[in-house]
Amino acid sequence: MACSEAAVQALSGGFVLAGVAYLLAQTRQSSPYGRYADPPERARTVPARAAWFLQELPSFLVPVALMWSSRGPPSGLGPRLLAWTFCLHYFQRTFIYSLLTKGRPYPLRIVLYAAIFCSMNGFFQGYYMLYCARYDEAWASDIRLVIGLILFFLGMAINIHSDHVLRRLREPGEVTYKIPKGGLFEYVSGANFFGEIVEWSGYAIATWSLPGLSFALFTVCSIGPRAYHHHRYYLEKFEDYPRSRKALVPFIF
C-alpha cells in the first residue's frame, strides 16, 4: 500500500473539522450518556464493560491488523516505537479499563458512533506510521520524541490513576455520583480527561505529524467540553464542592 499525502492531509483536516463541530454541539449540553443520558436513550443501552470493550477494540485491533498484513512492523525505530505506543493506550482501554469500569450502561448509538470513529482513527494512525512516516536514525534522540513520550506516559499515568479514583467512589451495585478526591482531582474537576489530553498532545509531539496533531485536537474538542459539564454538574449538585477546582487545566472556563 503506497502513501497518499493528499489523503493524509484531507483526513487530518476532516478530523479537525469534526472535532470543532463536536465542540460546538456540546456547547449547551454534553453528549447523552452517563449522567447526561436522556430517558429514551436508557431503553437502548449496552452494559458499560461491553460498551467500552467494543468501542475501543478497533483502535487496537486495526493498527495491529495493518502491521500483520504488511508482513511485519514498520521499518525503523521511530515508526515501530510510535505505532506500538498508540496501541499501548488502546490495549489498556480495551482489555484492562473495560473490565474494571463500574459505569452506567451506554446508549447503543453512542457505542456505535465511538466504534466507527475508533475504526477510522485506528486505520488512519496505523496507515500513516506504516506507509508514510519517515524518521532517520537521529530521531531516537530528538528532543521532540523525548518530550512527546514523557508527556504521553505522564498523561497515561494521570488518566489511569484518575480512573482508579473514580472507581473507588462507588460500592458494588452503586450508581450514585460523588465528589472525586485525590490525585489531580484536588485541582481539576476532570482529571481523567486532563490526563488523556496530555497523553495525546505528547503523542502529537512525538510523532510530529498531521495525523497525530489532528487526533490531539479532536481529543481536546471532544472531552474538553465534557470536563466542563462535569465541573458545572458538581457545582450545581454539591454545595460543598471546592470552588477552587478548575473546569479543565490548562483551559480555564
TrEMBL record:
<feature type="transmembrane region" description="Helical">
    <location>
        <begin position="143"/>
        <end position="160"/>
    </location>
</feature>
<keyword id="KW-0521">NADP</keyword>
<keyword id="KW-0472">Membrane</keyword>
<dbReference type="GO" id="GO:0006702">
    <property type="term" value="P:androgen biosynthetic process"/>
</dbReference>
<feature type="transmembrane region" description="Helical">
    <location>
        <begin position="6"/>
        <end position="25"/>
    </location>
</feature>
<comment type="similarity">
    <text>Belongs to the steroid 5-alpha reductase family.</text>
</comment>
<keyword id="KW-0726">Sexual differentiation</keyword>
<dbReference type="GO" id="GO:0005789">
    <property type="term" value="C:endoplasmic reticulum membrane"/>
</dbReference>
<keyword id="KW-0492">Microsome</keyword>
<dbReference type="InterPro" id="IPR039357">
    <property type="entry name" value="SRD5A/TECR"/>
</dbReference>
<feature type="domain" description="3-oxo-5-alpha-steroid 4-dehydrogenase C-terminal">
    <location>
        <begin position="105"/>
        <end position="253"/>
    </location>
</feature>
<keyword id="KW-1133">Transmembrane helix</keyword>
<keyword id="KW-0221">Differentiation</keyword>
<keyword id="KW-0812">Transmembrane</keyword>
<protein>
    <recommendedName>
        <fullName>3-oxo-5alpha-steroid 4-dehydrogenase (NADP(+))</fullName>
        <ecNumber>1.3.1.22</ecNumber>
    </recommendedName>
</protein>
<keyword id="KW-0443">Lipid metabolism</keyword>
<keyword id="KW-0256">Endoplasmic reticulum</keyword>
<dbReference type="GO" id="GO:0047751">
    <property type="term" value="F:3-oxo-5-alpha-steroid 4-dehydrogenase (NADP+) activity"/>
</dbReference>
<keyword id="KW-0560">Oxidoreductase</keyword>
<dbReference type="GO" id="GO:0030154">
    <property type="term" value="P:cell differentiation"/>
</dbReference>
<dbReference type="InterPro" id="IPR001104">
    <property type="entry name" value="3-oxo-5_a-steroid_4-DH_C"/>
</dbReference>
<dbReference type="GO" id="GO:0007548">
    <property type="term" value="P:sex differentiation"/>
</dbReference>
<dbReference type="Pfam" id="PF02544">
    <property type="entry name" value="Steroid_dh"/>
</dbReference>
<dbReference type="InterPro" id="IPR016636">
    <property type="entry name" value="3-oxo-5-alpha-steroid_4-DH"/>
</dbReference>
<comment type="function">
    <text>Converts testosterone (T) into 5-alpha-dihydrotestosterone (DHT) and progesterone or corticosterone into their corresponding 5-alpha-3-oxosteroids. It plays a central role in sexual differentiation and androgen physiology.</text>
</comment>
<feature type="transmembrane region" description="Helical">
    <location>
        <begin position="112"/>
        <end position="131"/>
    </location>
</feature>
